Amino acid sequence: MIDKYTRGVEAVPILDITAKTTAGAFFKIWIARFGTPSKIKTDQGCQFESRLFKALSHIFGIKRILSSYHPQSNGMTEEWHRPLKAALKAYNTEH
Which PROSITE patterns does the annotation name (predicted)? Predict the structure, then answer.
């Protein structure tokens, strides 16, 4: 998760990308620590399109903005993924 304005990043390991896990991580990692954002931008993954995630957004009054199908439309996140993936790959090969 990336704060667009501060460019603060929170990367946390999760066991899977189900709606329950994703919504729980969003609540515990972001909302509980930093407060409720006024809006979030997500891709069109089924975990973000789920009734659970939509309900969470509605309850907290979060406006959901969907990025287009192309990863380039969410450039800040994609840009940050490259070094994260490289670091994880390096860590994995060392251990």
Answer: INTEGRASE (PS50994)
Q: Nearest Cα to 75, choosing from 7, 12, 6?
A: 7
pLDDT tens digits for range 20-67? 999 999 999 899 999 999 999 888 889 999 999 999 999 999 999 887
Q: With 0-12 CB in 10 A as exposed, 13-18 as middle and 19+ as buried, what is 1?
A: middle
Contact 33, 40 (CB under 8 A): no
Q: What is the pTM of this model?
A: 0.70
Please report the beta strands in 10-94, taking only residues with DSSP state E, as ranges in sequence order. 39-42, 63-66
Q: Are 64 and 57 in contact (CB under 8 A)?
A: yes
Burial per residue of 52-87, b for 16 or more beta-carbon CB atoms within 10 angstroms, e otherwise: ebeebbeeeebeeeebeeeeeebeebeeeeeeeeee
